[in-house]
Amino acid sequence: MTTEIITKYFPNLSDKQIEQFAMLPSLYADWNSKINVISRKDIDSLMLHHVLHSLAIAKFTTFKAGTKIIDVGTGGGFPGIPLAILYPEVDFFLVDSIGKKIKVVEAVASSLGLENVRCQQIRSEQIREKFDFVVSRAVCLLPDFMKMTRHLVSSKHKNAVMNGVLYLKGGNIRGEIAPLGNSAVVCNIDDYFTEDYFAEKYVVYVAV
Question: What residues pair up with 70 in beta bridges, in sequence order?
């Protein structure tokens, strides 16, 4: 699966962005053969299961130039790397507690020429910097994630939606977010993308 799955939903990409997205399968296949950051069964479906999935956040909201976003528990670089390609004027900080994963993310970002991405092996609890949004993909239960990352969100808003957490999650999300009350907004990804893979997958937004 090539970039058609991306341009289908994001038709206004520049040639450079299309080229960057097109580089992802070979970059991740190469790195995954050395350091396993993506499950073997998923590597052949990278563009659908990882790249397009990450970009669901961009269907929920867009980010103004100069917005600061931290991807906590980035793993192999998702959702941060695809979002950084889509938003070259937005600053991304990709963090993970596992060093070998950050090694892969740094190498991928460098190969893509992403000057808006920086990476670090660090736990979210150790970070004192402030960001407009925290993004992540199913690191843990959302109420627990909120406790880990709430301190990272700036009180100064510049985007159409208030600063907060944008979380990609699947399955029975309603029970999981019940402790958050009415503060969590749940959006079905299959409202954005028609592929069967996105059934029961969600973007959850929590304003902070």
Answer: 93, 134
